[in-house]
Specification:
Elements (H helix, E strand, L loop, with lengths): L4 E5 L6 H11 L4 E2 L3 E2 L14 E2 L2 H9 L3 E7 L2 E6 H8 L4 E4 L2 H10 L4 E6 L3 H10 L5 H16 L6 E4 L3 H17 L3
Parallel strand pairs: 1-7, 1-8, 2-7, 3-4, 8-9
Antiparallel strand pairs: 3-6, 5-6
Helix pairs in contact: 1-7
């Protein structure tokens, strides 16, 4: 059995957090990769648990040292997956990375045996309903997230697997089956 990096991508509102939470409850050996970011912590966020909060200068040093499996900038902040943290966690089980398509491509280049899974919404209308249902997102933010979602969903063709989240339990089970199947592969 081989532990692999498991990249999970999908548009904002597709339910990645819910699906990942269900997966973590069902398989105790799964590890979640903690990203580094230059954005300030939100209320309740803990350094090293939700993110590694670093300065832009420190993030740049880490880029220069090749310390990231992947990194990207969003909304004037950097986000990235520290390589050493992910490699350490791989000793204990498959490692889940919740990252967007540009980062997924970088991970596949750094770790060719990584498994890339894209979560699709049942429909664009359902995705919009979920975004609006949060109640904490402005109309401009919803519009921007839907535009970004359109681009992200077009990237799904180069992922190893595409799973539709029409039911979070079923979606989590399908991804867990993919993880189990790919652990048996020898290449």
């Amino acid at each position: 059995m081989k532990n692999r990096l498991i990249v999970i991508s999908g548009a904002s509102g597709v339910g990645k957090g819910t699906v990942l939470g269900l997966m973590m409850k069902k398989r105790q050996d799964l590890r979640f990769s903690v990203s580094a970011t230059t954005r300030p912590p939100r209320p309740g966020e803990i350094d090293g648990v939700h993110y590694y909060f670093v300065t832009k200068e420190r993030f740049q040093e880490m880029i220069d040292q090749g310390a990231f499996l992947e990194y990207d900038a969003h909304a004037a902040n950097y986000y990235g997956t520290p390589r050493d943290q992910a490699e350490e966690k791989l000793k204990y089980g498959p490692v889940l990375l919740d990252i967007e398509p540009n980062g997924a491509k970088q991970v596949k280049q750094s770790a060719p045996d990584a498994v890339l899974i894209f979560i699709m919404p049942p429909s664009r209308a359902e995705l919009e309903r979920r975004l609006r249902g949060r109640g904490d997102t402005s109309e401009d933010q919803i519009r921007m997230r839907l535009e970004r979602a359109t681009w992200e969903m077009k990237q799904r063709d180069w992922y190893d697997y595409v799973v539709t989240n029409d039911d979070a339990e079923r979606c989590a089970e399908e991804i867990l089956n993919i993880i189990a199947d790919t652990a048996m592969e020898t290449h």
